[in-house]
Design goal:
Elements (H helix, E strand, L loop, with lengths): L5 H19 L4 H5 L8 H18 L4 H8 L9 H13 L18 H20 L3 H4 L3 E4 L3 E4 H20 L2
Antiparallel strand pairs: 1-2
Helix pairs in contact: 1-6, 1-8, 3-6, 3-8, 5-8
Amino acid sequence: MQIQNKPQIISALNENVDAFNNYIAPLNKEQFEVSPGGKWSAGQNLDHLIRAIKPLQLAYGLPKFALRILFGKTNRQSKTYDELVAKYKAKLAGGGRASGPFIPPFIGFKKKDELIKKYAEQKQKLILKIEKQNEKDLDAYILPHPLLGKATLREMLYFTIHHNEHHLELLKNR
C-alpha cells in the first residue's frame, strides 16, 4: 500500500475506519455479540479499536515539548508502511496480543450505535490533529506502543491504519 505523507495517511484512516463502521452497522444482535471459539465479538473488536485510537488522538494534541519530555525523540528514520506492517505481523506471530486497558469487556448490542459514533468521532479528532502536524515532526517524535516498542508519530498512524484493517479482516474471515 502506498501510504507515505499526511494526505495519504488521512485518506487511508478515513477509508479504513469508515469501512469498519460500515461493516459493523448492519449487524444484528447475534452477529454483533457472538464470540466464535472464544474470539472477540464484533462489538469487542470495535471497543478495542476505540481503546487504541483514543490515547493516540490525545497524544497528537500534546505540545511538542511535552512529547519530547514524556517520550523523547527518535534517533532513526521512520519505517515505511510495509515495514511497520511486517513488524506488527511478526509480533503477532510471536504471540503478541492486546493487554491491559486494550482488552475489551463484553459489549452488548445496545451499545452498537453509540460505539460506531464514538469511533467515527475519535477518528475525526485524530485527523484534525494530524492536519496540524508538520510532516517533519511525524518522523521526529516517538510514542510507546505496547507491542512495537517506540514508534514515531508517523509509524503510529501507519499502525492505526493497518490495525483497523487487521480487525476488519478478522471479522470478515469468521
